[in-house]
Write a structure and sequence with these properties.
The longest helix has 19 residues. It is built from 17 helices and 15 strands. The structure holds uridine-diphosphate-N-acetylglucosamine.
Length: 434
């Protein structure tokens, strides 16, 4: 059997890593790892001992080292066999160019399956191209629905799920969404959340990272203000436990940073709905600088889109000098995981972080009005509260979450074994259609 799996942008990488490992394990021993009692279906491991040939295609949507390469290195993803080199552009440009290039790959390679993960532009482009070439398509993380058609990812999900042959869902709400849309039962398999496989596999390793080292390596304040690379941190602190870390160099040259390791908030923002309009972005910036940073350190990891928009709206220039605000470049997977493990609270518009907060128990304010991941919400036992971009609401829930952080419950089958269930579902599909 030949499988082509596709990645395009940052959130894909942590989802494909465990799937590739599952294929590798299967090729070593087709029955290894396929004995999990948590597999919820009555299907048995494939008796077909045929090796799986796997090719990884990177569409090239994210190309910066920090948005792509660092994830390959840390998560030990083999280098992509083919890079389509699509790069940045409008959505039509990205999708159109991906389809043109991916069609060539499919014609040359003739795989049995195309596997897509998540909701980025690659899944729209590659599912349509695969089906037009009469190749079976499997969507990992199928069935998520925000109901928000202004969200590019929602359109991607709807199209990919409508035409894919096998829909592997991360939770039972997603399975139900697909049933409501009339998807035949045999196409839907509840397998759990594949991203949690990566979290569980890397938790211990991330625990070895020192917060102060992460800051020093990725510090944007200093680079922006001086044009130089980051200063080395003082080794007066271990960067763990309750001690204060102090960054010499940046401290003396730019601003005073008394960093209380045990009490910091983390923020990430990148959705067009939050960052592309000054009327929305400016009050958020004002809330964090005037209120959050008045009480504790806020670590803000800045996505390239957000940085561009902050500069466009002239909101960036005063940020480096802001007391208690640490601006970081986009972090590697392990660095972000480490911050999340220690954060007092997360402010984010990322779906993946909502999920990771739910497993790690970090209270999470989701700066969106809707979510395609309701299992992460407090009312379903998760860690997250939807706060949109209304400052009153953000403020109220910010203080409420600090006061009552809650104890999230891990959703069903977010157990670190989803990748093998994904591969098993593909093998079973093949067996059943013989
Ligand atoms: C994409 C995904 C989104 C995902 C996000 C995570 C879609 C529709 N959106 O959004 O679901 O949550 O990735 O990051 O697929 N840029 C760089 N370097 C890069 C990549 C991008 O500087 O390596 C800049 C470019 O100026 C680009 C902007 O960031 O215009 C936005 O990138 P783009 O790929 O269009 O979408 P994201 O906002 O990253």
């Amino acid at each position: 059997m030949k499988i082509v799996s596709v990645v395009g942008a940052r959130p894909n990488f942590m989802k494909i890593a465990p799937f590739i490992r599952a294929i590798h394990n299967y090729n070593i021993n087709p029955n290894i790892g396929f004995t999990s009692p948590s597999y919820p279906h009555s299907l048995s491991p494939s008796s077909d001992k045929e090796q799986i040939t796997h090719l990884l295609v990177h569409t090239g949507q994210h190309y910066d080292d920090r948005m792509s390469k660092s994830f390959f290195e840390e998560l030990e993803i083999p280098e992509a066999d083919i890079n389509l080199g699509v790069g940045s552009g409008t959505h039509a440009e990205q999708v159109g160019q991906t389809m043109i290039e991916f069609e060539k790959v499919l014609k040359a390679e003739k795989p049995d399956w195309v596997v897509i993960v998540g909701d980025v532009n690659a899944i729209l482009a590659c599912s349509v191209t695969a089906k037009k070439e009469h190749i079976k398509c499997c969507h990992i993380e199928a069935g998520l629905r925000s109901g928000d058609m202004t969200m590019p990812e929602e359109i991607n999900r709807l199209v990919a799920d409508r035409i894919s042959d096998l829909l592997l869902t991360p939770d039972l709400i997603s399975s139900e969404n697909l049933r409501k849309e009339g998807v035949p039962e045999e196409k839907i398999k509840f397998v759990g959340n594949i991203m949690i496989d990566t979290l569980e596999a890397n938790r211990e390793k991330a625990g070895g990272f020192k917060i102060i080292d992460i800051i020093s390596k990725n510090l944007l304040n200093y680079k922006m203000a001086t044009g130089k690379t980051s200063p080395q941190p003082s080794r007066s602190s271990t960067g763990t436990g309750s001690s204060n870390g102090e960054i010499i160099g940046s401290k003396s040259e730019i601003w005073n940073l008394e960093f209380e390791i045990n009490d910091f908030a983390v923020m990430t923002l990148h959705r067009p709905s939050n960052v592309d309009t000054k009327e929305i972005l400016e009050p958020i910036v004002r809330f964090i600088t005037d209120e959050v940073c008045a009480e504790r350190t806020l670590i803000w990891t800045i996505h390239p889109r957000t940085r561009k928009m902050l500069e466009t709206f002239s909101l960036f220039k005063n940020l480096p000098d802001q007391k208690n605000l640490i601006l970081l470049e986009p972090l590697s997977y392990l660095e972000m995981l480490r911050l999340n493990m220690e954060a007092r609270i997360m402010l984010t518009d990322s779906g993946g972080l909502q999920e990771e907060c739910t497993v790690l128990g970090t209270p999470c304010l989701t700066l969106r009005w809707n979510t395609e991941r309701p299992v992460t919400l407090r009312e379903h036992g998760g860690a997250s509260v939807l706060v949109g971009n209304n400052i009153e609401r953000i403020r109220k829930e910010y203080y409420a979450a600090l006061e009552n952080p809650g104890k999230p419950v891990r959703p069903e089958l977010w157990d670190g074994k989803t990748a093998e269930r994904c591969l098993m579902a593909i093998l079973d599909f093949e067996d059943e259609s013989k």
